[in-house]
Amino acid sequence: MQEHKIVSKEEWLQSRKEHLAKEKEFTRMRDELSKNRRELPWVKVEQDYVFEGPTGKENLSILFGECSQLIVFHFMFGTDWKEGCPSCSFWADNVDGIDVHLNHRDIKLVAVSKAPLPSLESYQRRMGWQFKWVSSFENCFNHDFQVSFTPEEIEKGEVIYNYGVNKFPREELPGFSVFYKDGNGDIFHTYSCYSRGLDMLNGAYHFMDIAPKGRDEAELDYGMAWLRRHDQYDDE
Questions:
Q1: Which of 20, 130, 148, 220 is deepest in the core (most CB within 10 A)?
Q2: Share above pLDDT 70 across residues of the chain, in percent, rounded to a whole number
Q3: What sections of the chain are H helices per DSSP?
Protein backbone atom coordinates (compact mmCIF):
# COMPACT_ATOMS: atom_id res chain seq x y z
CA MET A 1 0.00 0.00 0.00
CA GLN A 2 1.40 3.41 -0.99
CA GLU A 3 2.31 6.00 1.62
CA HIS A 4 -0.78 7.92 2.68
CA LYS A 5 -1.28 11.54 3.68
CA ILE A 6 -1.36 12.05 7.46
CA VAL A 7 -3.11 15.14 8.82
CA SER A 8 -4.45 16.63 12.04
CA LYS A 9 -7.82 15.55 13.42
CA GLU A 10 -9.30 18.92 12.41
CA GLU A 11 -8.12 18.63 8.81
CA TRP A 12 -9.34 15.00 8.68
CA LEU A 13 -12.77 16.11 9.93
CA GLN A 14 -13.02 18.75 7.23
CA SER A 15 -12.15 16.23 4.51
CA ARG A 16 -14.59 13.72 5.97
CA LYS A 17 -17.43 16.25 5.94
CA GLU A 18 -16.71 17.12 2.32
CA HIS A 19 -16.83 13.43 1.42
CA LEU A 20 -20.02 12.98 3.47
CA ALA A 21 -21.75 15.52 1.23
CA LYS A 22 -20.85 13.36 -1.78
CA GLU A 23 -22.05 10.22 0.00
CA LYS A 24 -25.39 11.86 0.76
CA GLU A 25 -25.73 12.91 -2.87
CA PHE A 26 -25.02 9.32 -3.92
CA THR A 27 -27.60 8.01 -1.43
CA ARG A 28 -30.25 10.32 -2.86
CA MET A 29 -29.36 9.24 -6.39
CA ARG A 30 -29.50 5.58 -5.33
CA ASP A 31 -32.93 6.08 -3.77
CA GLU A 32 -34.16 7.68 -6.98
CA LEU A 33 -32.67 4.86 -9.05
CA SER A 34 -34.38 2.28 -6.83
CA LYS A 35 -37.67 4.12 -7.28
CA ASN A 36 -37.16 4.07 -11.07
CA ARG A 37 -36.41 0.35 -10.89
CA ARG A 38 -39.70 -0.34 -9.12
CA GLU A 39 -41.53 1.65 -11.79
CA LEU A 40 -40.18 -0.44 -14.69
CA PRO A 41 -42.87 -2.22 -16.75
CA TRP A 42 -43.42 -5.94 -16.20
CA VAL A 43 -43.67 -8.94 -18.52
CA LYS A 44 -46.15 -11.74 -17.86
CA VAL A 45 -44.49 -15.15 -17.52
CA GLU A 46 -46.40 -17.54 -19.76
CA GLN A 47 -44.11 -20.59 -19.41
CA ASP A 48 -44.96 -23.03 -16.61
CA TYR A 49 -41.43 -23.86 -15.49
CA VAL A 50 -41.12 -26.99 -13.35
CA PHE A 51 -38.11 -27.43 -11.07
CA GLU A 52 -36.77 -30.29 -9.00
CA GLY A 53 -36.75 -29.32 -5.33
CA PRO A 54 -36.06 -30.95 -1.97
CA THR A 55 -39.67 -32.16 -1.75
CA GLY A 56 -40.17 -33.04 -5.41
CA LYS A 57 -41.44 -31.20 -8.47
CA GLU A 58 -42.25 -27.52 -7.95
CA ASN A 59 -43.39 -25.03 -10.56
CA LEU A 60 -42.45 -21.36 -10.50
CA SER A 61 -45.60 -20.44 -8.60
CA ILE A 62 -44.75 -22.80 -5.74
CA LEU A 63 -41.31 -21.22 -5.34
CA PHE A 64 -43.02 -18.06 -4.05
CA GLY A 65 -44.18 -19.91 -0.94
CA GLU A 66 -46.52 -17.60 0.97
CA CYS A 67 -44.94 -14.47 -0.56
CA SER A 68 -46.01 -12.39 -3.55
CA GLN A 69 -42.42 -11.48 -4.49
CA LEU A 70 -39.69 -13.89 -5.56
CA ILE A 71 -35.98 -13.24 -6.06
CA VAL A 72 -34.12 -15.94 -7.98
CA PHE A 73 -30.36 -16.26 -7.56
CA HIS A 74 -29.04 -17.69 -10.83
CA PHE A 75 -26.21 -19.73 -9.31
CA MET A 76 -23.63 -20.98 -11.84
CA PHE A 77 -23.52 -24.77 -11.57
CA GLY A 78 -23.36 -26.63 -14.90
CA THR A 79 -24.97 -30.00 -15.46
CA ASP A 80 -21.73 -31.97 -15.20
CA TRP A 81 -19.79 -29.75 -12.78
CA LYS A 82 -18.33 -31.30 -9.63
CA GLU A 83 -18.84 -28.13 -7.56
CA GLY A 84 -20.46 -24.73 -7.84
CA CYS A 85 -18.85 -21.59 -9.21
CA PRO A 86 -16.43 -19.92 -6.71
CA SER A 87 -17.79 -16.40 -7.30
CA CYS A 88 -21.42 -17.54 -6.99
CA SER A 89 -20.37 -19.31 -3.79
CA PHE A 90 -19.02 -15.96 -2.56
CA TRP A 91 -22.41 -14.38 -3.25
CA ALA A 92 -24.15 -17.33 -1.58
CA ASP A 93 -22.13 -16.72 1.59
CA ASN A 94 -23.57 -13.21 1.56
CA VAL A 95 -27.22 -14.19 1.14
CA ASP A 96 -27.42 -17.28 3.34
CA GLY A 97 -29.45 -16.65 6.48
CA ILE A 98 -31.30 -13.55 5.29
CA ASP A 99 -34.42 -15.51 4.27
CA VAL A 100 -36.27 -14.83 7.54
CA HIS A 101 -35.84 -11.08 7.12
CA LEU A 102 -36.90 -11.12 3.47
CA ASN A 103 -39.94 -13.27 4.29
CA HIS A 104 -41.13 -10.57 6.68
CA ARG A 105 -41.09 -8.12 3.77
CA ASP A 106 -43.10 -10.50 1.54
CA ILE A 107 -40.03 -11.73 -0.40
CA LYS A 108 -38.91 -15.29 -1.06
CA LEU A 109 -35.29 -15.94 -2.09
CA VAL A 110 -34.50 -19.13 -4.01
CA ALA A 111 -31.34 -20.26 -5.81
CA VAL A 112 -31.77 -21.96 -9.19
CA SER A 113 -29.06 -23.90 -11.02
CA LYS A 114 -28.87 -26.13 -14.08
CA ALA A 115 -27.10 -28.99 -12.27
CA PRO A 116 -29.15 -32.01 -11.14
CA LEU A 117 -30.58 -31.77 -7.63
CA PRO A 118 -28.25 -34.38 -6.04
CA SER A 119 -25.22 -32.29 -7.10
CA LEU A 120 -26.76 -29.16 -5.59
CA GLU A 121 -27.65 -30.88 -2.34
CA SER A 122 -24.18 -32.39 -1.97
CA TYR A 123 -22.47 -29.06 -2.53
CA GLN A 124 -24.92 -27.26 -0.24
CA ARG A 125 -24.15 -29.69 2.59
CA ARG A 126 -20.44 -29.15 2.05
CA MET A 127 -20.79 -25.35 2.19
CA GLY A 128 -23.27 -25.35 5.08
CA TRP A 129 -25.87 -23.15 3.40
CA GLN A 130 -29.55 -23.16 4.39
CA PHE A 131 -31.28 -21.25 1.56
CA LYS A 132 -33.66 -23.05 -0.77
CA TRP A 133 -31.98 -24.37 -3.91
CA VAL A 134 -33.74 -26.05 -6.84
CA SER A 135 -32.64 -27.56 -10.12
CA SER A 136 -33.70 -26.37 -13.58
CA PHE A 137 -32.04 -29.38 -15.19
CA GLU A 138 -35.21 -30.37 -17.06
CA ASN A 139 -36.42 -26.95 -18.19
CA CYS A 140 -35.27 -23.89 -20.16
CA PHE A 141 -35.56 -21.38 -17.31
CA ASN A 142 -31.84 -20.56 -17.18
CA HIS A 143 -31.62 -20.08 -20.92
CA ASP A 144 -34.77 -17.96 -21.07
CA PHE A 145 -33.33 -15.62 -18.45
CA GLN A 146 -29.98 -15.48 -20.24
CA VAL A 147 -27.67 -17.18 -17.76
CA SER A 148 -27.23 -20.57 -19.50
CA PHE A 149 -26.21 -21.04 -23.11
CA THR A 150 -26.49 -23.77 -25.72
CA PRO A 151 -23.48 -25.52 -27.29
CA GLU A 152 -24.38 -23.77 -30.56
CA GLU A 153 -24.27 -20.34 -28.91
CA ILE A 154 -20.96 -21.13 -27.23
CA GLU A 155 -19.48 -22.42 -30.48
CA LYS A 156 -20.56 -19.22 -32.21
CA GLY A 157 -18.71 -17.28 -29.50
CA GLU A 158 -21.51 -14.78 -28.91
CA VAL A 159 -24.27 -14.91 -26.32
CA ILE A 160 -26.92 -12.49 -25.08
CA TYR A 161 -25.89 -11.46 -21.57
CA ASN A 162 -26.57 -8.29 -19.60
CA TYR A 163 -28.89 -7.07 -22.37
CA GLY A 164 -26.31 -7.13 -25.13
CA VAL A 165 -24.25 -9.42 -27.34
CA ASN A 166 -21.13 -10.54 -25.49
CA LYS A 167 -18.24 -12.82 -26.28
CA PHE A 168 -18.45 -15.13 -23.28
CA PRO A 169 -17.52 -18.69 -24.36
CA ARG A 170 -19.04 -20.17 -21.20
CA GLU A 171 -22.07 -22.34 -20.62
CA GLU A 172 -23.13 -20.54 -17.42
CA LEU A 173 -23.08 -16.95 -16.14
CA PRO A 174 -24.50 -15.37 -12.95
CA GLY A 175 -27.52 -13.17 -12.33
CA PHE A 176 -30.55 -12.37 -10.20
CA SER A 177 -34.14 -12.20 -11.45
CA VAL A 178 -37.21 -10.82 -9.69
CA PHE A 179 -40.84 -11.89 -10.06
CA TYR A 180 -44.23 -10.83 -8.71
CA LYS A 181 -47.37 -12.97 -8.29
CA ASP A 182 -50.72 -11.23 -8.16
CA GLY A 183 -53.93 -12.30 -6.43
CA ASN A 184 -55.02 -14.29 -9.48
CA GLY A 185 -51.82 -16.33 -9.48
CA ASP A 186 -50.43 -14.62 -12.58
CA ILE A 187 -46.65 -14.22 -12.49
CA PHE A 188 -44.67 -11.29 -13.87
CA HIS A 189 -40.97 -10.82 -14.50
CA THR A 190 -40.09 -7.40 -13.05
CA TYR A 191 -36.29 -7.16 -13.09
CA SER A 192 -33.02 -8.98 -13.76
CA CYS A 193 -29.44 -7.90 -13.19
CA TYR A 194 -26.13 -9.34 -14.28
CA SER A 195 -22.39 -8.66 -14.30
CA ARG A 196 -21.41 -5.61 -12.17
CA GLY A 197 -25.10 -5.13 -11.38
CA LEU A 198 -24.63 -7.97 -8.89
CA ASP A 199 -22.18 -5.96 -6.75
CA MET A 200 -24.96 -4.34 -4.73
CA LEU A 201 -26.06 -7.81 -3.60
CA ASN A 202 -22.70 -8.71 -2.07
CA GLY A 203 -22.23 -7.25 1.41
CA ALA A 204 -18.60 -8.39 1.69
CA TYR A 205 -17.60 -6.17 -1.22
CA HIS A 206 -19.20 -3.17 0.48
CA PHE A 207 -17.18 -3.85 3.63
CA MET A 208 -14.04 -3.97 1.48
CA ASP A 209 -15.01 -0.68 -0.15
CA ILE A 210 -14.86 1.19 3.19
CA ALA A 211 -11.50 -0.34 4.17
CA PRO A 212 -8.22 1.49 3.36
CA LYS A 213 -7.14 -0.97 0.65
CA GLY A 214 -10.60 -1.29 -0.90
CA ARG A 215 -11.03 -4.46 -2.92
CA ASP A 216 -7.28 -4.51 -3.55
CA GLU A 217 -7.70 -6.22 -6.92
CA ALA A 218 -5.93 -3.80 -9.28
CA GLU A 219 -2.65 -5.72 -9.45
CA LEU A 220 -4.25 -9.14 -9.89
CA ASP A 221 -4.43 -11.01 -13.19
CA TYR A 222 -8.19 -10.53 -13.01
CA GLY A 223 -10.50 -8.96 -10.43
CA MET A 224 -11.44 -12.03 -8.41
CA ALA A 225 -8.19 -13.98 -8.71
CA TRP A 226 -7.85 -13.91 -4.91
CA LEU A 227 -11.22 -15.57 -4.31
CA ARG A 228 -11.63 -19.13 -3.05
CA ARG A 229 -14.60 -21.11 -1.79
CA HIS A 230 -14.82 -20.49 1.94
CA ASP A 231 -13.54 -23.99 2.77
CA GLN A 232 -10.50 -23.73 0.48
CA TYR A 233 -8.46 -20.80 1.81
CA ASP A 234 -6.53 -23.09 4.13
CA ASP A 235 -5.52 -25.30 1.20
CA GLU A 236 -2.86 -22.82 0.07
A1: 148
A2: 98
A3: 9-38, 60-63, 86-95, 99-103, 117-127, 141-144, 151-156, 203-209
